[in-house]
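== Fold encoding ==
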Amino acid sequence: MRRDQKNSNISEYLENVIEIKRVSKKTQGGSNISFSALVVVGNKKGSVGVGYGKGRDVTTAISKAIAKAKKELVTIPIKEGTILHEVRDSYGSAKVLLKPAPKGAGIIAGGSVRTVLELSGIKDISAKMLGSNNKICNIKSTLNALQKVKSRVN
């Protein structure tokens, strides 16, 4: 029974590893090697999160990042596969511009922003990254912009 519950949680969210870095720290006894991982998690139904984990090996870093991403999920209002209005936001020196696109246009975005938009469930959108090429900053600015999207009240 418990195994079935665990497997159902795994299949609910899709995970995508954006970046894995090997980090080396010099100490008196030599160098300590560890790994850091950046992971985006989403259910393709309007919920997406990002996590950054560190560990002695790659699998530990990835599992910590996935756990953090699932704790920080953001819900996005999506209408007919796109966002409701144009949004701009920044995080550090990274800026992002998100525009709704007509049906059938697809995701017009590059790099890590594209992954966040795909896992959130958005099908038609145009995005532009400005400023920094840092993956962490670009993902955070994209999430900030998606949180600014307001749903229309009738």
About this structure: The CA atoms of residues 28 and 34 lie 16 Å apart. The first strand starts at residue 14 and ends at 27. The first helix runs from residue 2 to 12.
